[in-house]
Amino acid sequence: MLDPILLRRDLQTVVDRLKSRGVDFDTERFNDLESRRKAVQTETESLQARRNALAKQIGQLKSRGEDASAVMAESQAIPDRLRQLEDDLAGVQQQLNDLLMSVPNLPHESVPHGASSDDNVEVRRWLPGAAGPDGNPPGLGFEPRDHVAVGEPLGLDFDTAAKLSGARFTFMRGPIARLHRALAQYMLDLQTTEHGYTECYTPYIVNSSTLYGTGQLPKFKDDMFAVSKGGDDDAKLDEHGNAYAREDQYLISTSEITLTSVVRDSIVAATDLPIRLTAHTPCFRSEAGSGGRDTRGMIRQHQFDKVEMVQIVAPDHSYAALEEMARHAEQVLQGLGLPYRVMLLCTGDMGFGAAKTYDLEVWLPAQNTWREISSVSNCETFQARRMQARFRNAQNKPEFVHTLNGSGLAVGRTLVAVLENYQQADGSVVVPEVLRPYMGGLAVLQP
């Protein structure tokens, strides 16, 4: 969530920065709510001062033996009005909060302006061998097949998945299922042993408060899978027997949600920062409105696995941490020998909560193009402000932390990249060397 103080102090700058993201901020509504807030607070302060003055006047009248009934009547009416004003202020603050909850983060000054992915900027690329004449990886020496054609003879089974669950799910069996698991284990081992992340196991179901904190709600409600618990009534009873509504629950779309939320509603010691966390989880996304895009195979699934990296840091370290996390994701691809490039996203292509984002794009020979396999973002205080996640600074005062997240990597898409880049003309797939210890020494998958 944006800083309300910044909006009050420099609204036009905020409006201009949001416009670079293609967002028109509702200044009329914001100004109206701010005007109402100020009016309520002004009347509240005036009444509080009047109440104090009347209390003093009552005391003086009584000390002189004079009639204080009229002054007391005025004074006794003030608390009711103050309670009404308190309710009015809470209502205005809630409307302001609702408005700001739907507004994306401000882009960092280093983010290039642009409207779409066409305006993203390539930062660097890495190839395991010499580049072809167009600067991309050279051909395989035969006509490459896509991961579906390569994978189905090896155990990828989309028909069974469709029978069990519907479209955009994957069933795997045999060595290819083990290869999928090996990829996740390799990623976790690299992030924990080499890069200092603490491995976590997290819930796959979270409440709506958690999703509001990290920014998935209310913006992306249609992209979430809501869940219900069998036998639950709509209402619960607290310890006093009072009924309250059950909070909505959802399957996680990324473990960024659970890992980042460990600092929700807390103040951590500065000495505890940076916090580095990683987890391997399934991720669930309904991807409303994405019909027709990448529906073949594993590129865009309702359920997929991901190894997530999260860092929670002091503000003065967050952009160094962003560069560090991008390198941590890159090392996975380098270890696997997969060609990739790093793209700096423009203002119009960044995610809702990001101030700056790098996408890692892996080369897919069958598509003859680069495809996203990791996204690494600095959210600055955007999530922390929503979560009330703070640390004690050098002056021992609470200050919002900066939160960062990144894929290290999306396991399914990495499997796609391995199948396509390591395919052989006979239909077999060479297992990358770093994965062979996880595969019991198996070096080649045979159809």
UniProtKB/TrEMBL annotation:
Keywords of this entry: Aminoacyl-tRNA synthetase, ATP-binding, Coiled coil, Cytoplasm, Ligase, Nucleotide-binding, Protein biosynthesis
Positions bound to ATP: R285, S286, E287, E372, I373, S374, S375
Signal peptide from the UniProt entry: none
Pathway linked to the protein: Aminoacyl-tRNA biosynthesis; selenocysteinyl-tRNA(Sec) biosynthesis; L-seryl-tRNA(Sec) from L-serine and tRNA(Sec): step 1/1
Residues annotated as domain Aminoacyl-transfer RNA synthetases class-II family profile: 178-432
UniProt-annotated binding residues for L-serine: T254, S255, E256, R285, E308, N405, S407
Subcellular location: Cytoplasm
Catalytic function, reaction form: tRNA(Ser) + L-serine + ATP = L-seryl-tRNA(Ser) + AMP + diphosphate + H(+); tRNA(Sec) + L-serine + ATP = L-seryl-tRNA(Sec) + AMP + diphosphate + H(+)
InterPro entries in the cross-refs: aa-tRNA-synt_IIb, aa-tRNA-synth_II, aa-tRNA-synth_II/BPL/LPL, Ser-tRNA-ligase_type_1, Ser-tRNA-synth_1_N, SerRS_1_N_sf, SerRS_core, tRNA-bd_arm
A GO BP entry: selenocysteine biosynthetic process
Notes on the domains: Consists of two distinct domains, a catalytic core and a N-terminal extension that is involved in tRNA binding.
Reported function: Catalyzes the attachment of serine to tRNA(Ser). Is also able to aminoacylate tRNA(Sec) with serine, to form the misacylated tRNA L-seryl-tRNA(Sec), which will be further converted into selenocysteinyl-tRNA(Sec).
Full protein name: Serine--tRNA ligase
Organism per entry: Bordetella genomosp. 13
